[in-house]
Amino acid sequence: MAPRGAIGLSLPKSSQANSTFTVPVIPNPNFRRDGFFELSKAYRKYQRHFSHLVIPPALVNYTLPATLSSRGSKTGSVVASPIIHDTMYLSPIYIGSQKFNMDFDTGSADLWVFSNKLPKTVQQQHKRLGGAIYKPAPNTKTARGLTWKIEYADGSSASGTVVIDKVKIGGIAVATQAVEVASKISSSFNDFEGDGLLGLGFSTINTVSPSKQKTWFENALPQLKSKVFTADLNKQAAGSYSWGFINTQYTKKVAYAKLRDSGWWHVDAAGGIKVNGKSITDHGKYTFGAVPDTGTTLILLPDSLARLYYAKVPGAEYLSSSGAWVYPCTSDSSSSMPSISLPVGNLWATIPGKHMTYAYANSAATMCFGSLQGFGDPDVLPFIYGDIFFKANFAVFDYGNRRFGFAQK
C-alpha cells in the first residue's frame, strides 16, 4: 500500500511560550489516490461504531491496484510547493527524546506508535521507509494490566501494551501521557510511512482496556492559553494544526455550532444540502448529525443526498459494481463541478467545485471519482466531513466551549 499522509516539517518555536503553538504539515507527494480505496476505508471505520452500516459488496475486500494512471499528477518537491495529492497528513511529535511523524485524527482517541515490541522484520521494513521505532527508556513506566486494540478505516488494526512517557508537540509537553506501544500490526501497515497515530477525539472513545485514558490534547489543556485546536489543511500547499489560539486571519469569521453530547466531535446537521447555492433535500430527518473527521479523506452523505448532488453533474453514474459515484472528466482537478454547502448546526459550510473531484476512477483517465460519496440511510448514520471539508474551511475544535467552528477559506 502506498503511504497515506504527508511529510513532517521541523517544528517552529511556540508563539506564546508554553501556551500556543502550530505544527506545520504538507501532503505526501508519493501518495497514490484511489477513491474506491478511501471509500472502503471509511465504511470500515464507521462500521465499528454503527453496526447496521452495510458495506457495498464490491468494497468489502477492495485493495489498491498495483498501479494507477499518473496523468495529471505532477507534484512539487519542496516545502510549500503545490502538491496535487490532498489526503491525510503527518506531523512531528516527540515521545521521550525520540521524534516521530504521526497522523493526527479527530475521529479517534488513541495515541499509538511503532515500537521495538513488533517483529524484527516489521521494524526493519518500517526503517527502510524512513520510519522511526519507539524504544521505551529503561526508566519508562509500564501501565501494568492495560492493553489496547484498534481497527481503522481500511480494516487495518494494531494492538499492544501501554507505557507512561513524556509527549511533546510544539511548545507543549505532557509529562505523563499514556502511549500505546504496538506489538502487533496488520499487514496493511507494513508500508505505512507514518510512525503511528495521534487521536484528537474525546477519551470516551479511547480503546485502552480496562480503563480508558485521556488524549494528549485533554492532558495538555491546563497549559494552553485557550482550550482549542485548529486544522488548516490546504490543497496543494502546506497546512497546519495549531493549539491554544485561533489564527487572527479567521478569528472574526469563525461561525460555531454546539457539540452534541455523544463523545465525538459531533454537531447537528439539518436542512439537506445546497448545490450551487440552491437548497436540495430528500426530506430526511437527519437525526444523526455530522462528524468533522480529519482521519477520513472524503465527504460522506446519505445515498439519497449524494444522488441529488450528482443529478447536477453531466454523465454522472452510480456504479453498483463498485459502490461509488463517477463521472466523465478530462482532468482530475477540474473546477467545473457544482459547489456544495453542508449543514453545520444551523449554519452552512461551502465546498467549492474545485475540491469536488478526488481522483481518476479508471486507468484511461476518462472517468473521475467524486469527493462526495453516498453512505447509507439518512436516519441511521451521521454525515462524515473528511479532509475535503478542511481544505475549503478553516476549522476550530473548541473543547472549552464544547463547540465546532469553521471559516470559509
UniProtKB/TrEMBL annotation:
Keyword Cell wall biogenesis/degradation recorded: no
Domain Peptidase A1: 89-407
InterPro entries with a match to the protein in the record: Aspartic_peptidase_A1 (IPR001461), Aspergillopepsin-like_cat_dom (IPR034163), PEPTIDASE_A1 (IPR033121), Peptidase_aspartic_dom_sf (IPR021109)
Active-site residues (renumbered): 105, 293
Gene Ontology molecular function: aspartic-type endopeptidase activity
Signal peptide per UniProt: none
Keyword terms, alphabetized: Aspartyl protease, Disulfide bond, Hydrolase, Membrane, Protease, Receptor, Transmembrane
Cysteine-cysteine disulfides: 329-368
Biological-process GO terms, alphabetical: proteolysis
Keyword Magnesium: no
Family the UniProt entry places it in: Belongs to the peptidase A1 family.
Name used for this protein in its record: Type I transmembrane sorting receptor
